[in-house]
Amino acid sequence: MDEMNRLMDDWVQQTKGKRTATHALVGTDRSDASHVVEVVEFPSYEEAMRNSNLPETDRIFRELVALCDEMPTFVDLDVVRDERLAEGIVRAFFEALRTPGELPPLNDLLDEDVHSHDPINPQDTIGLDNARAEFRMWRGAFDFAFSVEDVLAQGDRACARWTWNATHKGDFLGIAPTGRQVTMTGMTLFRFAADGKIAELWWQHDQLGLMQQLGALDALEQ
């Protein structure tokens, strides 16, 4: 699997600006770890064929075949139903925010014109790039994880109740790193676009409690 992942990384790097694939998923059979399945999504069959004809794809394919015990089997699938379940999207979103290393692109979860309403900001955050910048600010200030307690969904909306546990490691709203362990509870309301992506978020969280835990209110309390 390590060698296969290396080849896939090489293909992703070498086909930048050329490939037509939009999503790739690799899994192993729980009952037979040597059985590997890869699902690759394309906008159309024609785009898939165009991708297959790339010289980089052909080279990587030959190297992948060399790793296999037998010739891979190919299946062309037409999507007949694609239903993104709200609870799964919400949980995947919170999990993506805590991903170690570089923040994931999030374009599979958030609409390009997503609106984020957070009372900690004087103005709404509009657009995927700006939302990513805001999430990076939080990630730069804290090592954190969300515990999603409840998700309720109806129609094009879902609401999540969560607990946030973090370590203050970087500057946050002018507060220098304290190394303190902090906790915050809150709720987020999501609105989904027709394609199932998150189009709008409303955040409600215990900002006062967070600032108190960071020591920002010590002078006022004295």
From TrEMBL:
Signal peptide: none annotated. It comes from the Bacteria. This is Ester cyclase. The lineage of its organism: Bacteria, Bacillati, Actinomycetota, Actinomycetes, Kitasatosporales.
